Structures are given as structure tokens and as C-alpha cells.
Amino acid sequence: MRRSRSDLRSRRVYYGALGLILLIGAALTAIGVTMAGAAQDVLINLGSSVLGVFLVAVVLEPIIKFGRRYEEQIHGGFPHRRFLDGVAGCSQRVRIMGAWPYVMETQWRAEFLDALLAAIRRNAQVEILILDPTSPAAMQRRTDMRDSTEISRLVTEILAALDAFRARVPREKQTRLHVRIYNTLPPARLYRWDNRALSSFFPAGDRWGSDVRHYETNVTSGLGHFVDDQFSLIWNDKRSRDLTTYLRLPLRIQATGRTFHARYVILDDGLYAIAPELTDSLMRNASTDWRVCVEDTPDRDYTAQGVPDDDDEAWESILEFYTLKYGEPTTPGRLPGTIRLVEQP
């Protein structure tokens, strides 16, 4: 109550002072108009200066305060509409970093991809970082959250949707779209369009993250600059991979030269490819020579080996990681066409 009365008293004093300033400025100007010579110039200039103080206090100060409010805003949750509108009008750069993009959730996906395509057509550079769903960081994040199964399904859908989205991008604009997969949880999320950015910090507990505070700033602000720098560090990390390479491994059979793009998982004990066409070709055309190489690293040779039927632990791990990465297989049971790639010394 005391504070309210004090605030009211302060406002009365403030508005009273403004009224007095206005009265003095107007009076000096009016008197100056009636005079001649140097006195006229002095009074008019003095009156204009006093009116200038009134103008700053009444007109410019609120504009400055409004500008500051726009410069840094706090949103109680993720502002989907704000970001979608920003991307729709973007012409320079879009950056997203998080466990998955909130705007790729089902109810927002179509609108977001349309906005993203429009931005790419305007030559905006699009860079998206998504946490590897098979990484220890992602597994820990799912453990912290109640809807872990739903989240796993959502992330695999998002990866597939972004992979398919590339076909909608005109060929001459393909270099404008980049999606990379990383495996270390960053300190914060980033949603950037041109020079504006939304940032939030990864919370503990079972919240998805879209319901925590998000801070909207310019990229040049302290927070915006910090999170954008973290994005660049992770983007350039050698462990991050392009989405296409993450989903498909280009393998070439040494004996025949045939190339296959295989789905694959990486486990503690090695690299496993899941490609029935590849294994059929190995058995038909190179039954005595099962050497293959990854086209991106042709200097490293691998020998393809079958997975023993009685190695239940290996089959269980392969299926678990395959499901996290690609979703549920179309047929239940063990994955057909699975081989282990053993690197040659």
C-alpha cells in the first residue's frame, strides 16, 4: 500500500513537472515571437530547447522504452507463431539447434517446411542441428522425460521428413539447406531467423523444453552471440554428420564395384549395415571376397561378416539402435540383410 501511494505521488510530481516545462517552453516561445532582434532569437531558441525536453520525455522516451522491450523479450514458452512468421519473412539465415526442432512437431510441420522453402527461395542459408537419437546424451534426455517412447518416434519422423524435404528444394538452391546430426548436448537451444534469436536452456526434469522460458534477443546481444557461437562450434565439430550421411552409408563391393546405400548402426563392438540387396549381391557375385569400402573413405577396407544367429545380445542391440534411428522396422523380428563390417588392419 505504501509503495502504491509512493508510485502515485511520483507520477503526480512527474506529470506536474512536464506540465510546468510545457508551460515555460510555450511562454518563452510566445514572448520571443513578439520581440525583435537578438532577444527574439534567444527567447525562441530557449523556448525550443525547453519544448525539446518535453518532447523527449513525452514522445521519444516511450519509443525508446518500446524499442528496448522489442530488443529483449521473455516468452513464457516457445513462441511457435513468432518463429514461424520470422522464418516466413527471412532472407539471410535460419539456424536451429536442439534435441529436435519444435516447429517440426506434427501440428506445425507443414507450415514450417513451407516457410523454410520460401526462405530458401529468397537465398536464405538454412542450418539445422539435431541431437543424434542414438547418442548417450539423447538417451539420458529421454530418461529424464516421461514420454520417452513418444519422443523417440517423433525424432525419427522428423529426421525422415527433413530428409524427404530436400526433394522439394530446387536443384540450384540445394546448397542452401544443411541438416547435421550431433551427439553432445549443448548448453542452450537456438532458433534464429536473420538477426533475431530465441534461446532457452536445457531444463532438468520431465518437461519437453518448449514450456520453459525462451529469451528473444538480437544475435549481437550477449546471450544471442554466446548461443550462436555454441552453434558454430558444434556445427564444425568433426563428430557432427550431415543428415544424408547419417541415414545412409555408401558402400562399394571391392570385387564388383557395385555401390549400395545402406542403413546402418554403430555399436560399441563395431559397424553394422542393414541392406538385403548388398548381402544378396555379396553372396551371388563375390562369395569368396566379401571386402567392401565406404565411398567417403575409400582408403579403409572392411570385411563383411554375418551376425551369428545365436548372438542374441548383438541382435537385440542392433534392433534397439535401428529403431531409435529409423523407427520401427516394417517386419517384426531380426532385421534381414544385416552384416557386420570389420575394418581391415
Low-confidence stretches: 63-69
Proportion in helices:
40-55%
State the total count of DSSP E strands: 14
How many separate structural domains?
3
Number of helices: 10
Give the name of the CATH superfamily of the largest domain: Endonuclease Chain A
The top level CATH class name of the largest domain: Alpha Beta
Largest sheet: 8 strands, mixed
Q: Structural class of the helix and strand makeup?
A: alpha+beta
User: What overall geometry do the principal axes of the alpha carbons give?
Assistant: elongated
The Rg value, from CA coordinates, equals 31 Å
Strand adjacency order, main sheet: 1-7-6-5-2-3-4-8
Transmembrane segments: 12-36, 42-60
Keywords: Membrane, Transmembrane, Transmembrane helix
Report on this structure.
The chain is an alpha+beta fold. It folds into three domains: 2-71; 75-242, Endonuclease Chain A (Endonuclease, Chain A, 2-Layer Sandwich); 248-343, Electron Transport, Fmn-binding Protein, Chain A (Pnp Oxidase, Chain A). 48% of the residues lie in helices and 23% in strands. It has helices at residues 2-34, 37-71, 80-88, 106-121, 136-144, 148-165, 222-235, 243-247, 276-285, 312-326; strands at residues 73-75, 93-98, 125-131, 177-182, 188-193, 196-201, 214-218, 241-242, 249-253, 259-267, 270-274, 291-294, 297-306, 338-343. Strands 1-7-6-5-2-3-4-8 form an eight-stranded mixed sheet, with helices on both faces. A hairpin with a 2-residue loop joins strand 12 and strand 13 (297-306). Helix 5 crosses helix 6 (148-165). It is elongated and about 110 Å long. The model is unreliable at 63-69 (pLDDT under 50). The chain crosses the membrane at residues 12-36, 42-60. Keywords: Membrane, Transmembrane, Transmembrane helix.
